[in-house]
Amino acid sequence: MSSKKFHPSALHEKPGIPAPETISGYAVQHIQKFRKLQPSANELVAGILNGNITALSRAITLVESTSSAHLAKANEVITSCLPHANKSVRIGITGVPGVGKSTFIEAFGKYLTGLGKKVAVLAVDPSSTISHGSILGDKTRMEELVKDENAFIRPSASGDTLGGVARKTRETITLCEAAGFDTIIIETVGVGQSETAVHSMVDFFLLLKISGAGDELQGIKRGIMEMADAIVINKADGDNVKRAHLAKVEFNRALHLFPAKKSGWTPTTAACSAITQEGISEVWTTIEKFLTLTKGNNYFFEKRKEQNQYWMLETINEQLKSNFFSNPGIQQSMAVTKKAVQNDEISPFAAAQKLLETYFKKE
Ligand SMILES: Nc1nc2c(ncn2[C@@H]2O[C@H](COP(=O)(O)OP(=O)(O)OP(=O)(O)O)[C@@H](O)[C@H]2O)c(=O)[nH]1
Ligand SMILES: [Mg+2]
């Protein structure tokens, strides 16, 4: 053994350091064998449909890959999974940093697995593009859920653009559903356009808030209020209970000023504590009511169809854009043209036209 070459895998022994007795040689061999295998698309699909988490994770990694070699395989896996997806409820959760999203998802997720549901938690976090971290990196907030065999937690994909990150999450939903997850929770932080992206991939959109100093509506974007199917005031515990209930009343009043929703659903407000778990089950009851209403009036199904179309168009937009901006010829002309535009030598519109023409001629 000690003559062995250095190998980066943690499963290999280093010269001079014997493996602890607790490590089974058989298990090591088995894991190493499995790791080396590059399963085919068909094998991945079979694994996913069997509820195999390793296969699911590998397929997600494939979807998240930026290598064009992986794209065809990823698409094949997704296409085969599609007929087995869709049987789920997709819930979006947003709220500013610190509002308690992760803690809420831990409590809510545990409640749902307690009801016999299989819960997948995904995230759209555009900041992970920069920091390479993720809002779900703090898995410690989801200690119990992480251990739950009926839960699957996947941090946000990273990518160059929000559109790219969101698309990968949208595709991951399909994979999770095919693997038997019937409740999909997607967390996002209230940054930029990420809420809009998440809203476009979920059935129910939940806005988490905390009570402020009586000026609840300050600083809250109208667009987010409009998207919300429910506003839940978190941290309604201890000294906060009374304020949380006042905030709830204020939000309720504000929500009534918005025009009626196409879904026929009147957005609700509630207070809860992710820590004491007070009010958590009520959030699920609200979602169930929403589902009964919107499945009854067909809105649920129509919206999913619309969302599918939206993602097709979004992907085209996204890829055209990234193809254009990463084109070396365009990058070169762009630098020169930008200067010309700055100096008023050419109008911004004419310059754009010129660059686009160059690009399409190149294709
Ligand atoms: N008192 C009280 N504290 C809570 C509750 N929910 C979350 N917290 C606390 O609030 C802090 C932030 O909670 P997180 O769950 O990390 O919040 P988050 O929204 O996921 O934050 P980011 O991931 O940074 O966006 C933590 O210290 C939690 O313990 C609650 O219901 N009551
Ligand atoms: Mg968090």
From TrEMBL:
Keywords carried by this UniProt record: Hydrolase
Cited SMART domains: AAA
GO molecular function: hydrolase activity
Coiled-coil ranges per UniProt: none
Top-rank lineage group of the source organism: Bacteria
Domain AAA+ ATPase, first and last residues per copy: 87-238
Broad class of enzyme this protein falls into: hydrolase
Keyword Hydrolase: yes
Gene3D superfamilies in the cross-refs: 1.10.287.130, 1.20.5.170, P-loop containing nucleotide triphosphate hydrolases (3.40.50.300)
Family annotation (Pfam families): MeaB
E.C. number: 3.6.5.-
Keyword presence, Hydrolase: yes
Family under the similarity heading: Belongs to the SIMIBI class G3E GTPase family. ArgK/MeaB subfamily.
Name the record gives this protein: Methylmalonyl Co-A mutase-associated GTPase MeaB
